């Protein structure tokens, strides 16, 4: 028998417990399972010691390349993570608790999530936020479903400049519902406003846009939101939180629902998860929000406290009529997001955003010095931009992978006639030296 | 004087001159506990008897409210938007939810009188 | 305790940013810029550390208190799993999606593949996708897979059948996946009423969603019959894996007729619950459903190399932007290889032993609506205590004062005043004995001093909170 130290009973204790229960063996406790249904095989390998387990995990991690120089984004960004985040979010009291159903012994989690909701509202210029969703893509999907409920309509228009993975996730969520999804092909790296104008009517529940978009272009949606509101539809914007240190907030543009991925706020890349999705909206839509929401209240002595509120929206009460099926969210990642925003702080986020843009603009200027390389769009960009190469981007990216550089995201597999396009991301973590190295290696790969 | 009828789902309707005022019974309001939100129908909505008309939420419950009679919604109790507690305080009077233009008064045969409803409550 | 915003002092910072080594860029056009910076906290690093450390101390957690929260499987999360998970922090997920990128991600993709294989063996399925991000998303994914299956066969299906004891996520997930719900009541023997189930089954039923053992902690002895009936209508059987902790190595859902399953890695496979997440909800399917799995699908070629297959034609698409909650899966993978075959069997055996022990010791004090051998959890009712005006919630609050996280109360909905206790296998007899004593004290106090229970908790930073006020006023963010 593999005596697991995670199952603490001694044989003596087991026999005492069995006699209290009144059965002769542990096996007898499985008698409700009919004999003919019992497992015939179970092929999991024998267990390992703690040391061997860790060693095995180290060798798995070593089989992948973790020290690549990242100039890729695509929704996940290589940003600084202040040291305090691991220590504070790693405190067992946060880490090993669960959903705060019992508020009196969960005020730590509840207050932190209330502070998180506040941070998201202030960042996005929205009035209400929930306590997190799974990721950026599912947040787009939840926002779309929210708009369907609010408007009672069944058409969603998506700007083709939105992250293609998020668009796929949204379509998967709507896969078996009676909802029409219309995608608008990008025009010069931006939303094709003429095409949208032709599609906008009173059958449209919502329009989904992204800022900065998948090409890195920054847009302004104030006029658009008025146009959309004129047909009583909603504007949903997916945003990159770090960019909101500089860029006009969704609230200032008249956006109705703001979503995004919170990975960039203090969550490691971890090969794609966990991060968290955020969703925030105008106050009028609070009852249609998905997921947990924390609210402020008082106890009998008038002391301030926090509770899960508006629970009647949720699956454990409303079952098939719930606003969403979400139960577990990404609470710990949202906590990391809050600690990140608190650590960087008000001016720090502005400085961080500026630093990202400065580095990206430097890289952009250097890259176009390579013969045949041009910047594709004239629109302003934040820390990502699309360049046009004199040869297909796929081969160039492959070459640079060999030099441990993630040179960017080639657009060919996501957009038609874009084989030579590459989206390059530059965060504050990339030094001038590293950018110069990218430029050098890219030039070599292009000229060969 | 309007006559009051009840459903098994604890809605009431007061009928007068072709108009029905609709609400939930005091018993129902008590069972729900502190009401935190009333989702009222839109004016102009038409409903069939026993279709969902409105919804009421308390802290830990959500209940659909069914139309006691078929008809068209002509007025809603907007005061409940800001003060849903009125339903707890005065379920069978100030806490009314909506008025409908009754489509078919013969449907009253499917409802209980006040006395019948009180008897019905004893069986629950 | 003050909010961090109330501790904020203009100009303070919690971290020093990298210095710029490039020229400042020309400013963006005014119309693209925000008018004022977001009013985020401005605190020093020490302020920050004290704030969150002190907040954390206002939580009960698994590492500080026994946490027998039924249905949530709050088992101990081994520390080595944390050490393992951080090894993967630097990997950018786009790497694998770049041309030629899979070459550089063989370890990571291989781990996901192996985890899928092991979960397939544990559950008796043919293939597992690790993409779903939590249990509820796994349910939605599973029902979408079922809808794709029916669509491909040209079946016209409208309904999903669930027992009334099901988790709320089951009907909610099926509704998102486009189905109407038929709810079947529970019979006096504690399982879905088989006669009523037969009446509910028609050719329009797409799927039957079951939790087995169910939320009463009972294994349904009719499960094979139920799945045979479902299959006779070409309805598929969906297994909610929330309660998998009870049956590892004992019975495989795939062997008893289930076609689709989700697994909650944060429950059975010991990954931390994080105050509400992240979870992870891999979905296993039988062969017939493999073509519809989310893309990209991780496959192994003849040379043992791992590839990403992206065949969009019949797949339901994508349920996450990348490969699921990878770091959660790294923990679960480490847990499974560490415990191994015998260890996992022992987990289920002792989880069931512990639940039955608590059930037997407490049944003289609390009403046990379904008095039979249970699996990994037991459900009492506070109906006896209610005669003295004491509700399940009052007992829960009393337990808080005594240093225990309460069991799940008010679920399952079919048990009045439910108290659902899931001790898990990692708790010692001494811990459970002490908990049992407090539960007995509570039962006695319900008769002798009910006010004590109704006034609880008194040891916490706040007493019972006014939830009505919270719901009516909706203060969900601090105005400032």
Question: What does this entry show, briefly?
Answer:
The complex is a heterotrimer of chains A (448), B (124) and C (480). By secondary structure, chain B is an alpha+beta fold.
Computed CA radius of gyration of chain B, to the nearest angstrom = 13 Å
Query: How many structural domains in the coordinates of chain B?
Result: 1
Beta-strand share of residues of chain B = 35-45%
Mean pLDDT of chain B: 95
Low-confidence stretches of chain B: none
Residues in helix, % of chain B: 10-25%
Placed side by side, the strands forming the largest sheet of chain A appear as 2-8-7-6-5-3-4
Q: Give the beta-strand count of chain B.
A: 10
> What's the CATH superfamily of the largest domain in chain A, by name?
Type I PLP-dependent aspartate aminotransferase-like (Major domain)
Poorly predicted runs of 5 or more residues of chain A:
none
Output the CATH topology of the largest domain in chain A: Aspartate Aminotransferase, domain 2
Query: What is the global morphology of chain A?
Result: globular
Q: Describe it for me?
A:
The complex is a heterotrimer of chains A (448), B (124) and C (480). Helices cover 36% and strands 14% of the residues of chain A. Chain A is α/β, with parallel strands linked by helices. Chain A folds into three domains: 1-31, no CATH class; 69-78 and 347-447, Aspartate Aminotransferase, domain 1, CATH 3.90.1150.10; 83-340, 3-Layer(aba) Sandwich (Aspartate Aminotransferase, domain 2). In chain A, the strands form four sheets. In chain A, strands 2-8-7-6-5-3-4 form a seven-stranded mixed beta sheet, with helices on both faces. Chain A starts with 10 loop residues before the first helix and ends with a helix. The termini of chain B are far apart. Chain B is α+β, with helices and mostly antiparallel strands and 124 residues long. In chain B, a hairpin with a 4-residue loop joins strand 1 (3-6) and strand 2. Chain B has four helices and ten strands. Chain B has one domain (3-119): OB fold (Dihydrolipoamide Acetyltransferase, E2P), CATH 2.40.50. The model of chain B has no long low-confidence stretch (mean pLDDT 95). In chain B, 38% of the residues are buried. By secondary structure, chain C is of the alpha/beta class. Among the domains of chain C are: 1-14 and 36-58, no CATH class; 82-337, 3-Layer(aba) Sandwich (Aspartate Aminotransferase, domain 2). In chain C, helix 4 (106-123) runs parallel beside helix 10 (326-362) and helix 5 (135-153) packs across helix 6. The model of chain C has no long low-confidence stretch (mean pLDDT 97). The chains are: A alpha/beta (448), B alpha+beta (124), C alpha/beta (480). Chains A and C meet through helix 1, helix 2, helix 3, helix 4 and helix 5 of A and helix 1, helix 2, helix 3, helix 4 and helix 5 of C.
């Amino acid at each position: 028998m593999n005596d697991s130290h995670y199952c603490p009973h001694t044989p003596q204790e087991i026999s005492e417990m069995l006699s209290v229960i009144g059965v002769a063996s542990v096996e007898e406790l499985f008698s409700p399972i009919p004999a003919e249904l019992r497992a015939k095989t179970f092929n999991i390998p024998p267990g390992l010691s703690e040391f061997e387990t860790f060693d095995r995990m180290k060798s798995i991690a070593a089989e992948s390349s973790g020290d690549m120089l990242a100039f890729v984004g695509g929704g996940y960004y290589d940003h600084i993570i202040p040291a305090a985040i691991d220590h504070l979010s790693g405190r067992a009291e946060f880490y090993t608790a669960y959903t705060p159903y019992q508020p009196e012994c969960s005020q730590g989690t509840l207050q932190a999530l209330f502070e998180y909701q506040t941070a998201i509202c202030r960042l996005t210029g929205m009035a209400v936020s929930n306590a997190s969703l799974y990721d950026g893509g599912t947040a787009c999907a939840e926002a779309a479903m929210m708009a369907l409920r609010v408007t009672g309509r069944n058409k969603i228009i998506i700007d083709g400049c939105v992250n293609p993975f998020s668009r796929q996730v949204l379509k998967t969520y709507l896969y078996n519902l009676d909802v029409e999804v219309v995608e608008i092909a990008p025009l010069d790296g931006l939303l094709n406003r003429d095409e949208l104008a032709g599609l906008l009517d009173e059958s449209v529940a919502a329009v989904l846009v992204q800022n900065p978009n998948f090409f890195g272009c920054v847009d302004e949606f104030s006029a658009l939101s008025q146009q959309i509101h004129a047909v009583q539809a909603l504007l949903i914007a997916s945003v990159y939180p770090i960019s909101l240190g500089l860029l006009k907030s969704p609230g200032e543009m008249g956006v109705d629902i703001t979503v995004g991925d919170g990975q960039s706020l203090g969550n490691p890349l971890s090969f794609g998860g966990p991060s968290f999705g955020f969703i925030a909206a105008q106050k009028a839509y609070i009852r249609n929000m998905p997921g947990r929401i924390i609210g402020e209240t008082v106890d009998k002595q008038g002391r301030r406290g926090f509770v899960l509120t508006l629970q009647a929206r949720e699956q454990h009460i409303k079952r098939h009529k719930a606003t969403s099926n979400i139960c577990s969210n990404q609470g710990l990642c949202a906590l990391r997001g809050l600690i990140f925003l608190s650590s960087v702080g008000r001016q720090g986020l502005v400085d961080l955003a500026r630093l990202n843009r400065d580095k990206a603009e430097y890289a952009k200027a250097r890259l176009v010095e390579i013969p045949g390389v041009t910047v594709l769009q004239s629109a302003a960009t934040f820390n990502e931009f699309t360049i046009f190469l004199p040869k297909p981007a796929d081969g160039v990216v492959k070459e640079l992978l060999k030099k441990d550089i993630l040179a960017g995201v080639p657009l060919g597999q996501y957009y038609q006639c874009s084989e030579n396009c590459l989206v390059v991301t530059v965060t504050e973590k990339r030094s001038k030296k590293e950018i110069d190295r990218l430029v050098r290696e890219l030039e070599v790969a292009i000229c060969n | 004087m309007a006559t009051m009828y009840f459903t098994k789902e604890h809605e009431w309707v007061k009928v007068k001159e072709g108009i029905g005022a609709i609400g939930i019974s005091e018993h129902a309001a008590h069972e729900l506990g502190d009401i935190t939100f009333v989702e009222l129908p839109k004016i102009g909505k038409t409903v069939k008897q026993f279709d969902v008309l409105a919804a009421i939420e308390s802290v830990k419950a959500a209940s659909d409210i069914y139309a006691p009679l078929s008809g068209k919604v002509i007025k809603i109790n907007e005061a409940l938007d800001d003060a849903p507690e009125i339903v707890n305080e005065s379920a069978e009077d100030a806490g009314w939810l909506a008025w409908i233009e009754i489509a078919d008064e013969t449907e009253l045969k499917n409802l209980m009188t006040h006395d019948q409803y009180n008897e019905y409550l004893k069986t629950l | 305790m003050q909010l961090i915003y109330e501790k904020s002092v203009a100009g303070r910072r919690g971290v020093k940013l990298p210095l710029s080594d490039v020229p400042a860029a020309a400013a963006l056009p005014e119309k693209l810029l925000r008018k004022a910076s977001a009013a985020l906290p401005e605190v020093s690093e020490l302020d920050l550390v004290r704030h969150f450390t002190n907040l954390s101390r206002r939580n009960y957690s698994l590492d500080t208190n026994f946490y027998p929260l039924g249905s949530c499987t709050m088992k101990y999360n081994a520390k080595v799993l944390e050490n393992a998970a951080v090894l993967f922090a630097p990997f950018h997920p786009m790497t694998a999606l770049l041309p030629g990128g899979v070459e550089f991600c063989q370890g990571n993709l291989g781990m996901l593949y192996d985890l899928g294989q092991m979960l397939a063996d544990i559950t008796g399925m043919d293939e597992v996708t690790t993409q779903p991000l939590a249990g509820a998303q796994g349910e939605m994914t599973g029902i979408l897979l079922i809808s794709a299956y029916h669509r491909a066969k040209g079946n016209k299906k409208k309904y999903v059948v669930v027992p009334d004891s099901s988790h709320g996520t089951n009907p909610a997930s099926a509704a998102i996946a486009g189905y109407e719900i038929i709810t079947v009541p529970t019979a006096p023997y504690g399982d879905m009423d088989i006669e009523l189930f037969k009446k509910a089954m028609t050719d329009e039923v797409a799927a039957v969603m079951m939790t087995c053992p169910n939320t009463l902690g009972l294994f349904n002895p009719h499960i094979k019959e139920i799945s045979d009936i479902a299959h006779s209508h070409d309805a598929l059987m969906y297994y909610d894996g929330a309660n998998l902790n009870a049956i590892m190595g004992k019975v495989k859902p795939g062997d008893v007729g289930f076609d689709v399953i989700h697994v909650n890695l944060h429950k059975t496979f010991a990954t931390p619950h994080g105050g509400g997440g992240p979870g992870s909800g891999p979905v296993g399917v039988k062969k017939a459903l493999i073509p519809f799995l989310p893309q990209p699908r991780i496959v192994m070629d003849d040379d043992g190399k791992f590839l990403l297959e992206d065949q969009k034609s019949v797949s339901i698409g994508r349920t996450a932007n990348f490969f699921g909650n990878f770091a959660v899966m790294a923990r679960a993978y480490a847990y499974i290889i560490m415990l191994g075959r015998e260890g996992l069997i022992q987990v289920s055996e002792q989880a069931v032993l512990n639940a039955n022990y608590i059930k037997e010791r407490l049944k003289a004090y609390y009403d046990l609506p379904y008095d039979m051998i249970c699996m990994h959890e037991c459900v009492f009712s506070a109906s006896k205590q209610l005669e003295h005006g004491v509700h399940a919630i009052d007992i829960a609050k009393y337990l808080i004062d005594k240093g225990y996280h309460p069991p799940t109360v008010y679920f399952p909905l079919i048990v009045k005043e439910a108290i659902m206790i899931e001790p898990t296998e990692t708790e010692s007899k001494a811990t459970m004995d002490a908990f049992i004593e407090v539960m007995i004290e509570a039962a006695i106090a319900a008769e002798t001093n009910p006010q004590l229970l109704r006034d609880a908790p008194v040891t916490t930073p706040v007493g019972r909170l006014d939830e009505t006020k919270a719901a009516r006023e909706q203060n969900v963010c601090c105005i400032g």
